[in-house]
């Protein structure tokens, strides 16, 4: 049986009400196989270590540490473990009327290899900004997903009071990170290209206390026009964007094992205390809490 390729519009990103149905942090041994199968919800499969082959319809990808696969209920898929793998798996729905998890195991359907190989991957899209449709990627590598996913797993396993609403919040954040990553890959508009010199400067030297006037001068525009254009293109003021870039790099350095004193100095902070306070203001967590979670 050959399943037709289909486009599925999930809805507007602002209307997402995700429900986490199952979350696990697990290991799999070489030659272990999941599928071919069709699941009743969506699954995000993230590899912490090892290697696995993922087939979604007729498309095939080899995933390694930091890589992810995302597939849904309309698409045959198969996971084959190539070497010992440690992974995170999250089953979810994008718009769940209830917060209560519904374990997918009892409604997973097996399918044949022929069905798998003859089918085409389904396309899942979200509506962005009221008009644009953004396709969610089947395979991707995005830094910073692991801490959010591990928090989802812990909430699912511990079932503390309010865990379902916390999982919805974390899953919403996770999806937003994936969407934002996809948006950065779109062809740039003429307006976005106008602020490229400022973005490149901030990215190259986030430790420098860039003034709006300096960034505007790099782009060749008046401060007022530049500030308006920058906010329109990024959704943030130049100052807030600089802070966000510093915290983004700080997360990477923290997960790489660097000491806070080194990170604070590298990113231009006068003290570890100021760095920690700035980090918590932006993320809701201290650097230590972020690294632990």
From TrEMBL:
Name the Pfam families for this protein: Cupin_2 (PF07883), HTH_18 (PF12833)
Recite the UniProt keywords alphabetically. DNA-binding, Transcription, Transcription regulation
Q: Which SMART domains match?
A: HTH_ARAC (SM00342)
Asked if the keyword Iron-sulfur belongs to this entry, the reply reads no
Q: Which residues are in the HTH araC/xylS-type domain?
A: 196-293
The record's section on InterPro entries has: Cupin_2, Homeodomain-like_sf, HTH-like, HTH_AraC, HTH_AraC-typ_CS, RmlC-like_jellyroll
**Protein name from the UniProt record:** AraC family transcriptional regulator
């Amino acid at each position: 049986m050959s399943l037709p390729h289909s486009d599925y519009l999930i809805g507007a990103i602002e209307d997402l009400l995700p429900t986490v149905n199952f979350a696990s942090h697990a290991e799999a041994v070489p030659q272990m196989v999941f599928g071919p199968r069709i699941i009743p919800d969506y699954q995000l499969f993230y590899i912490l270590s090892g290697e696995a082959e993922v087939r979604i319809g007729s498309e095939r990808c080899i995933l390694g540490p930091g890589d992810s696969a995302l597939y849904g209920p309309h698409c045959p898929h198969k996971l084959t473990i190539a070497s010992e793998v440690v992974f995170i798996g999250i089953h979810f729905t994008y718009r769940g009327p209830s917060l209560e998890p519904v374990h997918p195991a009892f409604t997973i359907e097996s399918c044949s290899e022929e069905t798998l190989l003859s089918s085409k991957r389904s396309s899942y899209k979200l509506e962005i900004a009221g008009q644009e449709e953004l396709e969610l990627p089947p395979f991707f590598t995005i830094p910073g997903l692991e801490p959010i996913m591990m928090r989802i797993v812990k909430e699912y396993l511990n079932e503390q009071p309010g865990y379902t609403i916390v999982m919805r919040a974390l899953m919403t954040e996770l999806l937003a990170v994936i969407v934002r990553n996809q948006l950065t890959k779109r062809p740039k508009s003429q307006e976005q290209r106008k602020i490229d010199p400022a973005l490149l400067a901030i990215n190259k030297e986030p430790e420098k206390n860039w003034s709006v006037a300096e960034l505007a001068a790099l782009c060749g525009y008046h401060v007022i026009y530049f500030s308006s254009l920058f906010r329109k293109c990024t959704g943030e003021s130049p100052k807030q964007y600089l802070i966000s870039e510093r915290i983004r790099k700080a997360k990477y350095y923290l997960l790489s094992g660097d000491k806070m004193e080194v990170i604070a100095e590298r990113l231009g902070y006068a003290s570890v205390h100021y760095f920690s306070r700035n980090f918590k203001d932006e993320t809701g967590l201290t650097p230590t809490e972020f690294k632990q979670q």
